[in-house]
Amino acid sequence: MSPDSQGDVKRSTLYAFGVAFVASVGGFLFGYDLAIVCGANLYLKEVFHLSSAAFGFATGSAALGCIIGPFLGGWMCDALGRNKTMMLACALLGISALFTALPKDIVTFNIFRIVGGVGVGLCSVASPMYISEISPPRMRGGLGIMYQLAIVVGSIAAPFVSFIIIKLTSPEVCWRWMFASELLPVTVFLVLLSFLPQSPRWLAGRGRNDEALDVLARVDGPAFAEEEMKQIQAGLDEEEGKFSELFAPGIRYAFGIGLLLAFFNNWTGWSVMGGYIPMLFEASGLEDRAMAFLQFAVTYGFMGLVTLAACWTVDRVGRRPLWLAASALMCVVTAMTGAVFHFHLSGGIVLLLIILCTVPHGLALGPLPWLMMSEIFPTRLRARAVSLTTAFLWVTIYSGAQLFPIITDYSEKKIGSAGGAFWLFSLICVFAFLFGLRMLPETRGRVLEEIAASWKKR
Q: In sequence order, what DSSP letters do the residues of 95-118 get, joined into one string?
Protein backbone atom coordinates (compact mmCIF):
# COMPACT_ATOMS: atom_id res chain seq x y z
CA MET A 1 0.00 0.00 0.00
CA SER A 2 1.39 3.40 -1.00
CA PRO A 3 2.02 6.16 1.57
CA ASP A 4 -0.87 8.16 0.07
CA SER A 5 -3.23 5.20 0.40
CA GLN A 6 -2.12 4.60 3.98
CA GLY A 7 -2.78 8.26 4.73
CA ASP A 8 -6.27 8.01 3.21
CA VAL A 9 -7.07 4.94 5.34
CA LYS A 10 -5.88 6.70 8.51
CA ARG A 11 -7.94 9.81 7.70
CA SER A 12 -11.10 7.82 6.96
CA THR A 13 -10.60 5.68 10.09
CA LEU A 14 -10.17 8.80 12.21
CA TYR A 15 -13.24 10.39 10.63
CA ALA A 16 -15.38 7.28 11.24
CA PHE A 17 -14.16 7.13 14.84
CA GLY A 18 -14.90 10.83 15.40
CA VAL A 19 -18.43 10.59 13.99
CA ALA A 20 -19.22 7.48 16.05
CA PHE A 21 -17.70 9.08 19.16
CA VAL A 22 -19.98 12.11 18.86
CA ALA A 23 -23.06 9.91 18.31
CA SER A 24 -22.13 7.77 21.32
CA VAL A 25 -22.40 10.82 23.59
CA GLY A 26 -26.11 10.03 23.49
CA GLY A 27 -25.22 6.97 25.55
CA PHE A 28 -23.36 9.18 28.04
CA LEU A 29 -26.51 11.28 28.51
CA PHE A 30 -28.52 8.05 28.87
CA GLY A 31 -26.28 6.84 31.71
CA TYR A 32 -25.90 10.25 33.33
CA ASP A 33 -29.61 11.11 33.31
CA LEU A 34 -30.71 7.82 34.86
CA ALA A 35 -27.89 7.78 37.45
CA ILE A 36 -28.09 11.40 38.62
CA VAL A 37 -31.39 10.74 40.39
CA CYS A 38 -29.64 8.24 42.69
CA GLY A 39 -27.79 11.08 44.40
CA ALA A 40 -30.77 13.42 44.48
CA ASN A 41 -33.72 11.22 45.42
CA LEU A 42 -33.13 11.21 49.19
CA TYR A 43 -33.21 15.03 49.17
CA LEU A 44 -36.41 14.95 47.10
CA LYS A 45 -38.04 12.70 49.69
CA GLU A 46 -37.26 15.17 52.47
CA VAL A 47 -38.07 18.38 50.56
CA PHE A 48 -41.43 17.19 49.20
CA HIS A 49 -42.32 14.88 52.17
CA LEU A 50 -42.91 11.90 49.87
CA SER A 51 -44.58 8.65 50.83
CA SER A 52 -42.85 5.42 49.84
CA ALA A 53 -45.04 5.07 46.75
CA ALA A 54 -44.47 8.69 45.69
CA PHE A 55 -40.75 8.32 46.35
CA GLY A 56 -40.59 5.23 44.14
CA PHE A 57 -42.47 6.98 41.34
CA ALA A 58 -40.24 10.06 41.51
CA THR A 59 -37.15 7.84 41.32
CA GLY A 60 -38.43 5.78 38.39
CA SER A 61 -40.63 8.27 36.52
CA ALA A 62 -38.02 8.79 33.78
CA ALA A 63 -38.39 5.12 32.83
CA LEU A 64 -41.95 5.79 31.64
CA GLY A 65 -40.61 8.31 29.14
CA CYS A 66 -37.88 5.86 28.15
CA ILE A 67 -40.58 3.38 27.10
CA ILE A 68 -42.48 6.05 25.13
CA GLY A 69 -39.38 7.44 23.41
CA PRO A 70 -38.60 4.49 21.10
CA PHE A 71 -42.12 4.49 19.64
CA LEU A 72 -41.64 8.14 18.63
CA GLY A 73 -38.03 7.44 17.69
CA GLY A 74 -38.88 4.98 14.93
CA TRP A 75 -41.05 7.52 13.13
CA MET A 76 -38.68 10.44 13.75
CA CYS A 77 -35.60 8.55 12.57
CA ASP A 78 -37.34 7.90 9.26
CA ALA A 79 -38.96 11.31 8.88
CA LEU A 80 -36.20 13.62 10.17
CA GLY A 81 -33.08 11.46 10.00
CA ARG A 82 -31.03 9.83 12.71
CA ASN A 83 -28.90 12.83 13.70
CA LYS A 84 -31.84 15.28 13.80
CA THR A 85 -33.65 12.83 16.08
CA MET A 86 -30.61 12.92 18.38
CA MET A 87 -30.77 16.73 18.34
CA LEU A 88 -34.43 16.63 19.34
CA ALA A 89 -33.55 14.17 22.12
CA CYS A 90 -30.91 16.63 23.31
CA ALA A 91 -33.45 19.43 23.42
CA LEU A 92 -35.84 17.32 25.53
CA LEU A 93 -33.02 16.39 27.92
CA GLY A 94 -32.06 20.06 28.25
CA ILE A 95 -35.65 21.06 29.02
CA SER A 96 -35.84 18.25 31.57
CA ALA A 97 -32.55 19.24 33.23
CA LEU A 98 -33.69 22.85 33.59
CA PHE A 99 -37.20 22.26 34.88
CA THR A 100 -36.36 19.37 37.23
CA ALA A 101 -33.88 21.77 38.86
CA LEU A 102 -36.59 24.43 39.43
CA PRO A 103 -39.86 22.71 40.50
CA LYS A 104 -41.95 23.86 43.43
CA ASP A 105 -43.93 20.61 43.62
CA ILE A 106 -43.32 16.94 42.91
CA VAL A 107 -45.92 16.78 40.10
CA THR A 108 -43.95 19.29 38.03
CA PHE A 109 -40.76 17.39 38.79
CA ASN A 110 -42.25 14.08 37.64
CA ILE A 111 -43.63 15.57 34.42
CA PHE A 112 -40.23 16.88 33.36
CA ARG A 113 -38.44 13.68 34.40
CA ILE A 114 -40.78 11.87 32.00
CA VAL A 115 -39.90 14.45 29.32
CA GLY A 116 -36.22 13.67 29.91
CA GLY A 117 -37.00 9.96 29.74
CA VAL A 118 -38.51 10.47 26.28
CA GLY A 119 -35.21 12.11 25.29
CA VAL A 120 -33.25 9.13 26.63
CA GLY A 121 -35.59 6.76 24.75
CA LEU A 122 -35.05 8.68 21.50
CA CYS A 123 -31.28 8.55 21.99
CA SER A 124 -31.40 4.82 22.68
CA VAL A 125 -32.91 4.28 19.20
CA ALA A 126 -31.15 6.93 17.13
CA SER A 127 -27.57 6.79 18.44
CA PRO A 128 -26.85 3.03 18.03
CA MET A 129 -28.68 3.01 14.69
CA TYR A 130 -26.69 5.97 13.37
CA ILE A 131 -23.36 4.44 14.47
CA SER A 132 -24.24 1.11 12.86
CA GLU A 133 -25.29 2.69 9.57
CA ILE A 134 -22.30 5.00 9.16
CA SER A 135 -19.52 2.66 10.36
CA PRO A 136 -17.48 0.64 7.84
CA PRO A 137 -17.94 -3.14 8.37
CA ARG A 138 -14.34 -3.62 9.56
CA MET A 139 -14.91 -1.19 12.45
CA ARG A 140 -18.63 -1.44 13.13
CA GLY A 141 -18.42 -3.71 16.18
CA GLY A 142 -15.92 -1.60 18.09
CA LEU A 143 -17.61 1.67 17.16
CA GLY A 144 -21.03 0.27 18.06
CA ILE A 145 -19.88 -0.82 21.51
CA MET A 146 -18.72 2.75 22.17
CA TYR A 147 -22.39 3.49 22.87
CA GLN A 148 -22.47 1.00 25.76
CA LEU A 149 -19.12 2.33 26.98
CA ALA A 150 -20.58 5.84 26.99
CA ILE A 151 -23.56 4.64 29.09
CA VAL A 152 -21.14 3.23 31.66
CA VAL A 153 -19.04 6.42 31.70
CA GLY A 154 -22.20 8.50 32.20
CA SER A 155 -23.28 6.21 35.05
CA ILE A 156 -19.86 6.69 36.69
CA ALA A 157 -19.74 10.46 36.13
CA ALA A 158 -23.13 11.18 37.73
CA PRO A 159 -22.30 10.04 41.30
CA PHE A 160 -18.92 11.81 41.19
CA VAL A 161 -20.58 15.05 40.08
CA SER A 162 -23.20 14.59 42.81
CA PHE A 163 -20.45 14.12 45.40
CA ILE A 164 -18.76 17.38 44.34
CA ILE A 165 -22.06 19.30 44.38
CA ILE A 166 -22.90 18.00 47.86
CA LYS A 167 -19.53 19.27 49.09
CA LEU A 168 -19.92 22.71 47.49
CA THR A 169 -23.60 23.55 48.09
CA SER A 170 -26.15 23.42 50.90
CA PRO A 171 -28.50 20.44 51.40
CA GLU A 172 -31.47 22.67 50.52
CA VAL A 173 -30.33 23.28 46.94
CA CYS A 174 -27.75 20.61 46.11
CA TRP A 175 -30.31 18.31 44.49
CA ARG A 176 -31.34 21.16 42.16
CA TRP A 177 -27.75 21.62 41.01
CA MET A 178 -27.45 17.88 40.40
CA PHE A 179 -30.22 17.97 37.81
CA ALA A 180 -29.03 21.29 36.38
CA SER A 181 -25.53 19.84 35.89
CA GLU A 182 -26.83 17.82 32.93
CA LEU A 183 -27.22 21.05 30.94
CA LEU A 184 -23.46 21.14 30.32
CA PRO A 185 -23.08 17.76 28.53
CA VAL A 186 -26.40 18.34 26.73
CA THR A 187 -25.15 21.65 25.34
CA VAL A 188 -21.84 20.13 24.25
CA PHE A 189 -23.63 17.23 22.56
CA LEU A 190 -26.03 19.55 20.75
CA VAL A 191 -23.15 21.62 19.35
CA LEU A 192 -21.21 18.54 18.22
CA LEU A 193 -24.28 17.02 16.56
CA SER A 194 -24.58 20.03 14.26
CA PHE A 195 -21.34 18.89 12.57
CA LEU A 196 -22.46 15.30 11.91
CA PRO A 197 -23.57 14.23 8.42
CA GLN A 198 -26.83 12.41 7.89
CA SER A 199 -26.75 8.62 7.81
CA PRO A 200 -25.78 7.48 4.28
CA ARG A 201 -28.52 4.84 4.34
CA TRP A 202 -31.15 7.42 5.29
CA LEU A 203 -29.90 9.66 2.47
CA ALA A 204 -30.02 6.79 -0.02
CA GLY A 205 -33.55 5.97 1.08
CA ARG A 206 -34.52 9.55 0.19
CA GLY A 207 -32.91 9.32 -3.23
CA ARG A 208 -29.99 11.56 -2.24
CA ASN A 209 -27.42 9.14 -3.59
CA ASP A 210 -24.63 11.65 -4.27
CA GLU A 211 -24.71 12.84 -0.64
CA ALA A 212 -24.80 9.24 0.60
CA LEU A 213 -21.82 8.36 -1.61
CA ASP A 214 -19.87 11.32 -0.26
CA VAL A 215 -20.45 10.28 3.37
CA LEU A 216 -19.46 6.67 2.64
CA ALA A 217 -16.28 7.84 0.90
CA ARG A 218 -15.32 9.90 3.94
CA VAL A 219 -15.71 6.96 6.35
CA ASP A 220 -13.81 4.34 4.31
CA GLY A 221 -12.65 5.62 0.94
CA PRO A 222 -14.11 5.89 -2.61
CA ALA A 223 -13.73 2.20 -3.53
CA PHE A 224 -15.66 1.09 -0.46
CA ALA A 225 -18.28 3.78 -1.10
CA GLU A 226 -19.00 2.63 -4.66
CA GLU A 227 -19.38 -1.02 -3.67
CA GLU A 228 -21.47 -0.24 -0.59
CA MET A 229 -23.81 2.05 -2.54
CA LYS A 230 -24.56 -0.75 -4.98
CA GLN A 231 -25.56 -3.04 -2.11
CA ILE A 232 -27.58 -0.31 -0.38
CA GLN A 233 -29.48 0.47 -3.58
CA ALA A 234 -30.13 -3.20 -4.31
CA GLY A 235 -31.46 -3.69 -0.80
CA LEU A 236 -33.71 -0.61 -0.97
CA ASP A 237 -35.18 -1.74 -4.27
CA GLU A 238 -36.42 -4.93 -2.59
CA GLU A 239 -37.88 -3.26 0.52
CA GLU A 240 -41.15 -1.42 1.13
CA GLY A 241 -40.57 -0.50 4.77
CA LYS A 242 -43.99 -1.49 6.11
CA PHE A 243 -44.53 -2.75 9.66
CA SER A 244 -46.16 -5.86 8.19
CA GLU A 245 -42.77 -6.84 6.72
CA LEU A 246 -41.50 -7.48 10.25
CA PHE A 247 -43.71 -10.58 10.31
CA ALA A 248 -42.77 -11.85 6.86
CA PRO A 249 -40.87 -15.16 6.70
CA GLY A 250 -37.20 -14.67 7.55
CA ILE A 251 -37.56 -11.12 8.85
CA ARG A 252 -39.78 -12.29 11.69
CA TYR A 253 -36.93 -14.58 12.72
CA ALA A 254 -34.64 -11.53 12.85
CA PHE A 255 -37.30 -9.67 14.83
CA GLY A 256 -37.46 -12.54 17.32
CA ILE A 257 -33.68 -12.39 17.70
CA GLY A 258 -33.93 -8.65 18.39
CA LEU A 259 -36.52 -9.21 21.14
CA LEU A 260 -34.45 -11.98 22.74
CA LEU A 261 -31.33 -9.80 22.66
CA ALA A 262 -33.32 -7.11 24.51
CA PHE A 263 -34.51 -9.64 27.11
CA PHE A 264 -31.12 -11.21 27.76
CA ASN A 265 -29.50 -7.76 27.97
CA ASN A 266 -31.37 -7.22 31.24
CA TRP A 267 -32.33 -10.58 32.70
CA THR A 268 -28.96 -12.33 32.67
CA GLY A 269 -28.05 -10.65 35.93
CA TRP A 270 -26.20 -7.38 36.01
CA SER A 271 -28.85 -4.99 34.66
CA VAL A 272 -31.42 -6.27 37.17
CA MET A 273 -29.10 -6.19 40.18
CA GLY A 274 -27.17 -3.07 39.13
CA GLY A 275 -29.56 -0.58 40.73
CA TYR A 276 -29.46 -2.47 44.02
CA ILE A 277 -25.73 -3.01 44.46
CA PRO A 278 -25.39 -0.85 47.64
CA MET A 279 -28.38 -2.71 49.11
CA LEU A 280 -26.74 -6.05 48.28
CA PHE A 281 -23.50 -4.99 49.96
CA GLU A 282 -25.47 -4.01 53.07
CA ALA A 283 -27.39 -7.31 52.94
CA SER A 284 -24.06 -9.14 52.96
CA GLY A 285 -23.15 -7.50 56.27
CA LEU A 286 -21.42 -4.24 55.24
CA GLU A 287 -22.64 -1.65 57.74
CA ASP A 288 -20.80 1.43 56.43
CA ARG A 289 -23.17 2.98 53.85
CA ALA A 290 -20.49 5.29 52.45
CA MET A 291 -18.28 2.25 51.86
CA ALA A 292 -21.20 0.52 50.11
CA PHE A 293 -21.46 3.44 47.67
CA LEU A 294 -17.70 3.46 47.16
CA GLN A 295 -17.76 -0.24 46.28
CA PHE A 296 -20.69 0.48 43.96
CA ALA A 297 -18.52 3.01 42.10
CA VAL A 298 -15.68 0.48 41.93
CA THR A 299 -17.91 -2.12 40.26
CA TYR A 300 -19.06 0.34 37.58
CA GLY A 301 -15.50 1.51 37.02
CA PHE A 302 -14.36 -2.06 36.48
CA MET A 303 -17.20 -2.67 34.02
CA GLY A 304 -16.06 0.41 32.10
CA LEU A 305 -12.63 -1.19 31.64
CA VAL A 306 -14.18 -4.45 30.47
CA THR A 307 -16.42 -2.62 27.98
CA LEU A 308 -13.38 -0.79 26.66
CA ALA A 309 -11.75 -4.18 26.08
CA ALA A 310 -14.90 -5.32 24.25
CA CYS A 311 -14.49 -2.42 21.79
CA TRP A 312 -11.15 -3.93 20.81
CA THR A 313 -12.15 -7.61 20.74
CA VAL A 314 -15.57 -7.62 19.07
CA ASP A 315 -14.26 -7.08 15.53
CA ARG A 316 -11.41 -9.51 16.07
CA VAL A 317 -13.14 -12.37 17.87
CA GLY A 318 -16.72 -11.95 16.58
CA ARG A 319 -20.13 -11.50 18.15
CA ARG A 320 -21.16 -15.15 18.67
CA PRO A 321 -17.96 -16.32 20.41
CA LEU A 322 -18.14 -13.36 22.80
CA TRP A 323 -21.82 -14.00 23.51
CA LEU A 324 -21.28 -17.71 24.17
CA ALA A 325 -18.29 -17.10 26.45
CA ALA A 326 -20.09 -14.33 28.35
CA SER A 327 -23.29 -16.38 28.82
CA ALA A 328 -21.34 -19.34 30.19
CA LEU A 329 -19.22 -17.15 32.47
CA MET A 330 -22.24 -15.24 33.81
CA CYS A 331 -23.98 -18.56 34.54
CA VAL A 332 -21.04 -19.67 36.68
CA VAL A 333 -20.52 -16.31 38.42
CA THR A 334 -24.19 -15.79 39.34
CA ALA A 335 -24.36 -19.37 40.65
CA MET A 336 -21.34 -18.65 42.87
CA THR A 337 -22.82 -15.31 43.96
CA GLY A 338 -26.04 -17.09 44.91
CA ALA A 339 -24.04 -19.52 47.03
CA VAL A 340 -22.25 -16.64 48.81
CA PHE A 341 -25.57 -15.02 49.73
CA HIS A 342 -27.19 -18.33 50.62
CA PHE A 343 -24.43 -19.23 53.10
CA HIS A 344 -24.33 -15.61 54.38
CA LEU A 345 -20.67 -15.03 53.60
CA SER A 346 -19.39 -11.46 53.87
CA GLY A 347 -16.33 -9.35 53.25
CA GLY A 348 -14.21 -9.13 50.13
CA ILE A 349 -15.73 -12.26 48.54
CA VAL A 350 -19.00 -10.36 47.97
CA LEU A 351 -17.26 -7.43 46.27
CA LEU A 352 -15.15 -9.80 44.21
CA LEU A 353 -18.09 -11.81 42.87
CA ILE A 354 -20.22 -8.76 42.09
CA ILE A 355 -17.25 -7.26 40.23
CA LEU A 356 -16.94 -10.56 38.35
CA CYS A 357 -20.61 -10.16 37.31
CA THR A 358 -19.57 -7.01 35.44
CA VAL A 359 -17.11 -8.95 33.24
CA PRO A 360 -19.55 -10.96 31.06
CA HIS A 361 -22.02 -8.08 31.02
CA GLY A 362 -19.45 -5.48 29.95
CA LEU A 363 -17.87 -7.88 27.46
CA ALA A 364 -20.98 -9.02 25.58
CA LEU A 365 -24.35 -9.28 27.36
CA GLY A 366 -24.54 -5.49 27.81
CA PRO A 367 -23.13 -4.02 24.57
CA LEU A 368 -23.96 -6.67 21.94
CA PRO A 369 -27.76 -6.21 22.06
CA TRP A 370 -27.40 -2.46 21.45
CA LEU A 371 -25.00 -3.16 18.58
CA MET A 372 -26.78 -6.09 16.94
CA MET A 373 -30.33 -4.74 17.17
CA SER A 374 -29.13 -2.02 14.77
CA GLU A 375 -27.26 -4.46 12.50
CA ILE A 376 -29.73 -7.21 11.68
CA PHE A 377 -32.64 -5.38 10.00
CA PRO A 378 -33.05 -4.09 6.42
CA THR A 379 -32.58 -0.34 5.89
CA ARG A 380 -36.21 0.65 5.27
CA LEU A 381 -37.36 -1.46 8.22
CA ARG A 382 -34.50 -0.63 10.57
CA ALA A 383 -36.02 2.37 12.37
CA ARG A 384 -39.35 0.62 12.94
CA ALA A 385 -37.77 -2.65 14.06
CA VAL A 386 -35.21 -1.00 16.35
CA SER A 387 -37.91 1.20 17.90
CA LEU A 388 -39.94 -1.88 18.85
CA THR A 389 -37.02 -3.95 20.15
CA THR A 390 -35.68 -0.95 22.09
CA ALA A 391 -39.10 -0.26 23.62
CA PHE A 392 -39.21 -3.91 24.70
CA LEU A 393 -35.70 -3.51 26.13
CA TRP A 394 -36.94 -0.61 28.27
CA VAL A 395 -39.89 -2.70 29.42
CA THR A 396 -37.46 -5.40 30.56
CA ILE A 397 -35.35 -2.77 32.36
CA TYR A 398 -38.44 -1.54 34.18
CA SER A 399 -39.63 -5.07 34.96
CA GLY A 400 -36.22 -6.02 36.37
CA ALA A 401 -36.10 -2.99 38.66
CA GLN A 402 -39.64 -3.68 39.89
CA LEU A 403 -39.33 -7.44 40.32
CA PHE A 404 -35.85 -7.85 41.83
CA PRO A 405 -36.91 -6.85 45.39
CA ILE A 406 -39.95 -9.13 45.08
CA ILE A 407 -37.81 -12.04 43.87
CA THR A 408 -35.26 -11.57 46.65
CA ASP A 409 -38.03 -11.36 49.27
CA TYR A 410 -39.58 -14.57 47.91
CA SER A 411 -36.18 -16.26 47.96
CA GLU A 412 -35.66 -15.17 51.59
CA LYS A 413 -38.98 -16.71 52.58
CA LYS A 414 -38.47 -19.98 50.71
CA ILE A 415 -34.78 -20.76 51.25
CA GLY A 416 -33.70 -18.24 53.89
CA SER A 417 -31.47 -16.09 51.63
CA ALA A 418 -31.38 -13.93 48.49
CA GLY A 419 -29.38 -16.66 46.74
CA GLY A 420 -32.37 -17.90 44.78
CA ALA A 421 -32.50 -14.65 42.78
CA PHE A 422 -28.96 -15.23 41.51
CA TRP A 423 -29.69 -18.87 40.70
CA LEU A 424 -32.63 -17.66 38.59
CA PHE A 425 -30.13 -15.52 36.62
CA SER A 426 -27.95 -18.62 36.18
CA LEU A 427 -30.88 -20.50 34.65
CA ILE A 428 -31.62 -17.61 32.28
CA CYS A 429 -27.94 -17.57 31.27
CA VAL A 430 -28.28 -21.21 30.21
CA PHE A 431 -31.03 -20.14 27.80
CA ALA A 432 -28.89 -17.19 26.67
CA PHE A 433 -26.09 -19.64 25.82
CA LEU A 434 -28.47 -21.88 23.85
CA PHE A 435 -29.82 -18.81 22.06
CA GLY A 436 -26.28 -17.85 21.05
CA LEU A 437 -25.53 -21.39 19.93
CA ARG A 438 -28.68 -21.94 17.87
CA MET A 439 -30.01 -18.56 16.75
CA LEU A 440 -27.56 -15.67 17.03
CA PRO A 441 -25.98 -14.77 13.66
CA GLU A 442 -22.34 -13.75 13.22
CA THR A 443 -22.31 -10.21 11.78
CA ARG A 444 -18.59 -9.43 12.08
CA GLY A 445 -17.19 -7.84 8.92
CA ARG A 446 -20.44 -8.15 6.97
CA VAL A 447 -22.13 -5.27 5.16
CA LEU A 448 -25.55 -4.44 6.65
CA GLU A 449 -27.30 -5.25 3.36
CA GLU A 450 -25.66 -8.69 3.29
CA ILE A 451 -26.97 -9.40 6.80
CA ALA A 452 -30.46 -8.25 5.83
CA ALA A 453 -30.47 -10.38 2.67
CA SER A 454 -29.50 -13.49 4.63
CA TRP A 455 -32.92 -13.62 6.36
CA LYS A 456 -34.67 -14.12 3.02
CA LYS A 457 -32.71 -17.34 2.51
CA ARG A 458 -34.49 -18.82 5.53
A: HHHHHHSS-SSHHHHHHHHHHHHH
